[in-house]
Amino acid sequence: MSLLSASSSSGSLSSRSSSPSFAGSASTTPSTPIHSTPTVFLITHPASAPFLKALPVCTGSGDRVLILTGAGLAKPLLAQASEVLADASLLDSAKWESVKAVDDNENVVFWRTSSDISSFASPPHDSLLYLDKLSINTKEVSEASALNLFSNSNLRALISLPSSSSLTLHILERPPFSFPLLSQTPSTVLNPNANAYTIPSSSCFRDLWSAWDLVTLGMIPQSMLHQKPIDLRHKPLFYIGHLPTFNALLLTKLLRVPMVEPRNFGVIFERGIDPHVDDPDHCHSHSEVPEKDEDWPHLGQVLAFRDRVRALVMKTLGELEDGTRVLTRRIARTLVMMHEHEGFHIETLLYMLIQRAGTGTLPPPGFAAPAWAHLSTQWDTIPAPTTSSVTLGPCTLEMGHDDQEPQDLLSEFEGDVAGHEFGWDNESPKRSVVVRKFRVEWRPISNGEFLAFWKKMDGKVDMPASWVEEEREMKVRTLYGPVSMEYAQHWPCLTAYDDLLAYARSKGGRLPTESELRLFLDTYQVGHEEGSNTGFRNWHPLPATAGTDSNGGKGSNGGVWEWTSTLLDTHEDFQGTSIFPGYSSDFFDTKHHVVIGASYATIPRIADRRTVRNFYQHNYPYPWVGARVAFDV
Which pLDDT band holds residue 115 (cuts at 50, 70, 90)? Predict the structure, then answer.
């Protein structure tokens, strides 16, 4: 049993797991009731985001939305959809009912499967759905545009089925949470410039908390609370307490108010661990945690504390919005740190939990399991790069941004918030770097490529921790459990820097420097709104797509961070944070390498800020980091 079903303190999440309210204007609300049995909606017109958002699609119920875009006959794609969904009734005209609605002031008809038509607020259309004759003639939509439409509609694509014509059928679900597009950041009292990288709004925090609660309360069985998924980190219960403790410590210090009770949580949960892989006894300053399971706080106590801290966060934002508290850059930075710290930790916890997926960790509730066989068939047909690599440089590259934390306390900067881009200490200041001419492969090293290399090395290179051998078959770990290497062979290989460096050297290459990789990503990597696999669009990597003639060579790296050969270290005019002392400087130890990019579980705000620099030890095998091969020219 998950903690979500066991805990009475998860009301915010459970309330989101039912169908969202779609009480909108009459012009965008389809007239259909919510049914308890799974329903399939078929949309054949160019639907707007408000229309799709208003569809009564229940989260986690098996409800699906089928959207046809482009032009061509629909029945062949509906036949494929019936296979994917294992629902033969999709090909039975008698199972479909038409429904009149209004979308963007236009009268439209959509279709749904139902056994009861008597409760429709608007009577069903007179005509039947003649599948053999159903022809679509709408504008073709790019993959990125479709994904953005789905994001704006609070829908998630499970698979998109193309046809020999321009017609595509998208199969979607309503997820328990999603992250709004950064371009849709609203103008508010606290953020009049609609700046995606300034102070996070209350809705930003609520979206993040929904994701965090789903992971911590929906994917961790009670039996795993005190079990370490990996040796080099704490047990899951620590992280459930760590995030509210971190927020409470930062916020109460900022506001000069007493620590949220119980105060001893600040001792237990303040800071996690990142010990040296080679010598786990060597570790930075961290919290002293109880040795015995029975000495830890109970989950209910931790969740009650979490709720009190969240209430303080919301109260603070409310005071800033109504003007009873003056917004300063220091306050904004603290709230940014709290928000992004949670974003980073969702991913940290997930790369730990994936080590027990299938043997303890539960799949993400409310998110449908991928149709691996159908998806892998599509992945096998992704075109290879037109050339294996691309040459870049020489050039001068701008790195970082100007966001020095000490300026927060200077009078000339204190009130500059709305137009400011916040980051972490290692992102500042802006600086110019000369990049020499080099050559780099279009795509990260794939599982299939590394598997062939690993077999040749005959034990001289470690097996990636992202793989697992079951009954003499090599599989790749996912949050839904291990899957066949056949399905995941084209995904980027996630393993330690040392092992990917060994692969690169076997090809006469190396791993790129930070500035080299930054130049490549700036030039050829697409962002979240251009179709990258970030922000929980999927709960697994995808094959990389860069290097073809389409889109000027641009594409996705598959949804992974990427290793660089650059060690995390100080740089000119670096100034460490005083709000989170040691965030970067504790790891200037010649062991941590800079990684950049973003994984499928990186929130968009972090994924799309090009100055973000993450870091891991060179021989740490668990994080979702891949690499591509670079060559001197």
Answer: low
Query: What does the alpha-carbon distance between residue 152 and residue 182 come to, in Å, rounded to a whole number?
Result: 11
- Average pLDDT in the chain: 91
Instruction: Indicate the CATH number of 393-444+495-632 among 3.10.270.10, 3.30.1540.10, 3.40.1190.20, 3.90.1580.10.
Output: 3.90.1580.10
Can you give the residue ranges of every domain in the chain? Answer: 18-175, 183-356, 393-444+495-632
pLDDT in tens, 440-484: 999 999 999 999 999 999 999 999 999 999 999 999 999 999 999
Is 9 a residue whose pLDDT tops 50? no
Measured between alpha carbons, how far is residue 595 from residues 210, 529, 555, 564, 572 in Å?
27, 22, 19, 6, 19
**Mean pLDDT confidence for 189-212:** 98
Distance in angstroms (rounded) separating the CA atoms of residues 52 and 65: 9
Element (H, E) at 169: strand 168-173
Q: Helix or strand or coil: residue 85?
A: coil
Using CA atoms, how far residue 435 sits from 15, 428, 432, 519, 628, in Å, is 51, 19, 10, 8, 17
> What pLDDT does 270 receive?
80
Q: Are 287 and 267 in contact (CB under 8 A)?
A: yes
**For 183-356, which CATH class?**
mainly alpha
Tell if the pTM clears 0.85, that is, is over it: yes
pLDDT higher than 80, residue 401: yes
Instruction: Give the pLDDT confidence score for residue 4 in this predicted structure.
Output: 52
Tokens of 334: 């603290």
Q: How far is CA 421 from the centre of its chain?
A: 21
The secondary structure of residue 18, as a DSSP letter, is: S
Beta-bridge mates of residue 510 = 630
Give one word for 378, left, alpha or beta, with left for phi > 0 and alpha for psi -120 to 50: alpha
**HSE-up (13 A, CA, CB side) for residue 406:** 6
